[in-house]
Amino acid sequence: MHLLMWKPAMGWRDFLDELVIVVVGVLIALWVGKLSSSIDWQSRDSQTRDALSAELSDALTNLDTRQALAPCMDRRLDAIADVLGHARSSGRLAALPDLPASPGANWENGAWQVMVDSETASNLNVKQLNSLSLVYSNIARLQGRNDREREAWARLATISGPARPIGAEELSDLRTALNVARDMEGRIEIAAAWMPAMIRQSGLHVVLSAAQKRQIDEARRNFCSGWPIRG
Fold this sequence. Notes:
By secondary structure, this protein is an all-alpha fold. It is built from five helices and two strands. The mean pLDDT is 84.
């Protein structure tokens, strides 16, 4: 029995030359695809880190703003307490100018959510991922506290206007709002004291721009003037 051995029509040398060309072509295509995927991954990772840095820079601005406003916040709440104390004794609210709004801020977490929902989170080491997770969990708490603070200050703003009588029920409601405002202010101030260090240790490049520093100074000037502040 004779075994039939296949033989390329072009000859073995030419066949092997063609095979080498095909194999090399496939390998090059695979390498180019992998390189393109790596470049795309690095680009998306860089964009995500830049977005996180910008988001945390805004958070740092909010925290530094609250530290700058803390003395004025304390004095303003003391002034409101005095107003309510006099109203309780006299049964009337004195004429007062408009009470400035709470210096509440928006605490964004969109870039963090995008990173968590995408594959780029795997590019971070465990320590950095845990650090950022802790930062953003506190940012979520701050947003909730800011929302409660805004509601309390909106209620306190009703003391502004011409002199008028005030009943016991309204006065009790205002004192409750004052207590909530004090509580939220204290909690936010505590976070403002220690969170900046945590943000700066997150492994991302987080710095305040000149515009953000001006924003903090402007917020302090605006909030610390224009309404009676005791002392």
